[in-house]
Amino acid sequence: MRLYWGSASPFVRKVMVTAHELGVQDSIERLDSAAHPVQRDNRIAAFNPLAKVPAAMTADGIALYDSRVICEYLDAQAGGGLFPAPGPLRWTALRRQALADGVLDAALLIRYERLARPEAQQSPGWIEAQSAKIADGLDAMAADLPASGCADIGAISYGCALGWLDFRFPDLDWRDGRGGLAAWQAEFDQRPAMAATRPFA
């Protein structure tokens, strides 16, 4: 599989953590990209018309995007394990993935507001509203922790979201008042798949 990749993307990281957990990381050819909210990278658009990463192409020519689809594809190809079978465990894992992705979406909107718009045109109200979503999402994560040792797609999504907040929002101090979530993240972050995929600019 070929994958348009970005070293700092939390959604790309989720794909790569999934690949490492499944032991298939060496089967992925990583393609450089320059994804940007305003300046489209048309190379990515060959795989994903939205020109967003991650975007993949399978060996038999199937285009896959976004991270949720690519992760489930990798899991299915490897025989399963990270996406539980239909039932309560699956719905919990998928809910956690959606929650973590939503926290990332709000954080990315703040980053894009600051990165892509001149300071005089930035909206404090917009940033405040997205910050509230992040705080509420983190509180929900803290109240819905995966079990110790769990490494399903919900846990992977939590770990990648929290790692990206540390990477891009070091002043957020999301651990304050969320000791259980902080302890969970500290343990999960020691997994080899997390260590092998740390974001960098």
Q: What series of H and E elements makes up the topology? A: EHEHEEHHHHHH
Strand proportion: 5-15%
Please give the share of residues in helix. 40-55%
CATH topology of the largest domain: Glutathione S-transferase Yfyf (Class Pi), Chain A, domain 2
Number of strands: 4
What's the CATH architecture of the largest domain? Up-down Bundle
Cα shape:
globular
The CATH class of the largest domain is Mainly Alpha
Indicate the mean pLDDT. Answer: 96
- Our measurement of the CA-to-CA distance between the termini, rounded to an integer number of angstroms, reads 24 Å
Query: What is the total domain count?
Result: 2
Q: Biggest sheet: strands, sense, closure? A: 4 strands, mixed
Question: What's the tally of helices?
Answer: 8
Structural class: alpha+beta
Rounded to an integer in angstroms, the radius of gyration calculated over CA atoms is 17 Å
- List low-pLDDT spans: none
Strand arrangement, major sheet: 2-1-3-4
InterPro entries: Glutathione-S-Trfase_C_sf, Glutathione_S-Trfase_N, Thioredoxin-like_sf
Domain GST N-terminal: 1-82
Keywords: Transferase
Pfam family, one: GST_C_2
